[in-house]
Write a structure and sequence with these properties.
Elements: H1 9-17, H2 23-36, H3 39-47, H4 50-58, H5 67-84, H6 93-112, H7 122-144, H8 150-158, H9 162-173, H10 204-224, H11 230-239, H12 248-255, H13 259-280, H14 285-288
């Protein structure tokens, strides 16, 4: 009973006192539930197998999770087994339900045992739940065979890469670290670790709004640029719209005019562009003053 701490004695006693079902009784209850949706049949079937749920849940108590939660997840697996069980098959319900109960509890452990998940493939699950047992068994062999590579042997037994074994072992041996813990143990006023995970960037709605505004401004600009002459457009493109703005002197040399003339054309083009933007988009008046 000590290994089931957290579960009320009355619950355990009720599970242990539930009558065992014969094969014929199991079959009859399963048929009533499947064909007629008989809730009383489902209750009798699951109540008789709660001792199985408790026994399987007890095997996972060393992962630091509350036993009542493990039992609850096991009960979910038991109900799943009842929903999927085919009475016509020559198999006992307890045998069929064992797999579903264990799978439900294992998924719960993997979801909640650590913030850093250990993998979700069948091989990774097998490694997670069998690592300790395999390590002990192979360590005993190493006493007679000192040359054995512990991690390589475990990887071969489970069917994963050696690197996966090393990573999983580090996760299982390393303690979880609270994000609320201070960065420095010496300074009680130091920042928490979680403070360094804050995203200082703009919020998603701000990003979307900026993207929409950017597209709108681009459309406005492309429309306004149509009022410029070819030379005015070239000067603005090379002076204002390129990543490396051309100098007045260099642009004047290309066009065969003085840099002062380039400046005059540029100022005139900017004024024409401003007027065109305001005329076509009156809402910009406040922005341009």
């Amino acid at each position: 009973m000590a290994q089931l701490s957290g579960i009320s004695r009355s619950f355990v006693r009720a599970a242990m006192d539930a009558p065992y079902l014969s094969r014929e009784d199991e079959h009859a209850l399963a048929v009533r539930w499947r064909d007629n949706g008989d809730q009383d049949a489902l209750e009798q079937l699951t109540r008789a197998h709660m001792r199985l749920v408790i026994a399987i849940a007890a095997r996972f108590r060393n992962y630091g999770l509350p036993v009542p939660d493990l039992v609850q997840e096991g009960h979910v697996g038991l109900l799943e087994a009842a929903a999927r069980f085919e009475p016509e098959r020559e198999v006992r319900f307890s045998t069929y339900a064992t797999w579903w109960i264990r799978a439900s509890i294992q998924d719960f452990v993997l979801r909640n045992w650590s913030i850093v998940r250990g993998g979700t493939s069948s091989a990774q699950k097998a490694l997670f739940f069998n690592l300790r047992r395999l390590r002990m068994r192979i360590a005993q062999r190493m006493e007679q065979e000192p040359g054995l590579d512990l991690h390589a042997e475990i990887a071969a037994a489970v069917g994963v890469q050696k690197a996966d074994v090393v990573t999983m072992e580090a996760r299982l041996s390393g303690p979880d670290m609270s994000l609320n813990a201070p960065v420095s143990d010496e300074d009680s006023g130091s920042a928490d670790r979680g403070d360094f995970f804050a995203d200082t960037g703009p919020l998603p709605d701000e990003l979307v709004g900026e993207a929409i505004d950017g597209e709108r401004r681009y459309e406005w600009l492309q429309s306004a640029l149509t009022v410029l002459s070819e030379r005015e457009l070239r000067i603005l493109r090379e002076r204002k719209l390129s990543e490396e703005g051309e100098t007045l002197e260099a642009l004047g040399s290309k066009l065969g005019i003085s840099k002062e003339r380039v400046r005059q054309i540029e100022n005139r083009a900017l004024e024409k562009l401003r007027k065109a933007l305001i005329e076509r988009n009156p809402q910009l008046v406040s922005a341009y003053g």
